[in-house]
């Protein structure tokens, strides 16, 4: 996979170093960049995210990357907040997002037995076949840290449950997303990243 040119979009997320290490363990080098030309030229683009949706969208807009990301034709993977940024909107700050994938991220309802954020290992439920999920199975565990989630819908390829079901992975044309953190999800996360890098 060394011929892959992987760009991690510099969107202000704090998880880029751990993501780069996860890719290195797969034998793949990556670069963190906000340069539109570098992003456009990449074979694979990853949109990470940690923090608030409104702040992340503001940073993308300041660099003109909101417009650019919508035009990308290579495989794009949104991770955690990065996945939510691909949606129409987020309840967090009532912000319009990139509008690539239908849906709106909403805050988990607070319950005594389910603190928010949802944090820790949770199981996956595969909804339909998808190249991103090749080799993954119902009941596999992934590591989540998030307060907002997308309901299960047309773009959902895997779900999880925190009280009610929510979307764990999406696919919409050449855009993919994981609500969990593959870089922190051991073998399951490594397989998902490897699968993404194998998509042409």
Compact description:
By secondary structure, this protein is of the alpha/beta class. The chain has helices spanning 16-25, 36-41, 53-62, 65-71, 81-85, 186-198; strands spanning 6-9, 30-33, 44-47, 76-79, 87-90, 95-96, 101-107, 118-123, 125-126, 141-146, 148-150, 156-162, 164-172, 175-178.
Give your account of this protein's structure.
The protein is of the alpha/beta class and 200 residues long. It has a single domain (6-198), classed as Rossmann fold (3-Layer(aba) Sandwich), CATH 3.40.50.880. It contains 6 helices and 14 strands. It has helices at residues 16-25, 36-41, 53-62, 65-71, 81-85, 186-198, and strands at 6-9, 30-33, 44-47, 76-79, 87-90, 95-96, 101-107, 118-123, 125-126, 141-146, 148-150, 156-162, 164-172, 175-178. Strands 2-1-3-4-14-13-12-9 form an 8-stranded mixed sheet. It has a 4-stranded mixed sheet with strand order 6-5-7-11. A two-stranded antiparallel ribbon has the order 8-10. The longest helix is centred in the C-terminal third of the chain and has 13 residues, at 186-198. The termini are close together.
SSE blueprint and pairings:
Layout (H helix, E strand, L loop, with lengths): L5 E4 L6 H10 L4 E4 L2 H6 L2 E4 L5 H10 L2 H7 L4 E4 L1 H5 L1 E4 L4 E2 L4 E7 L10 E6 L1 E2 L14 E6 L1 E3 L5 E7 L1 E9 L2 E4 L7 H13 L2
Parallel strand pairs: 1-2, 1-3, 3-4, 4-14, 5-7
Antiparallel strand pairs: 5-6, 7-11, 8-10, 9-12, 12-13, 13-14
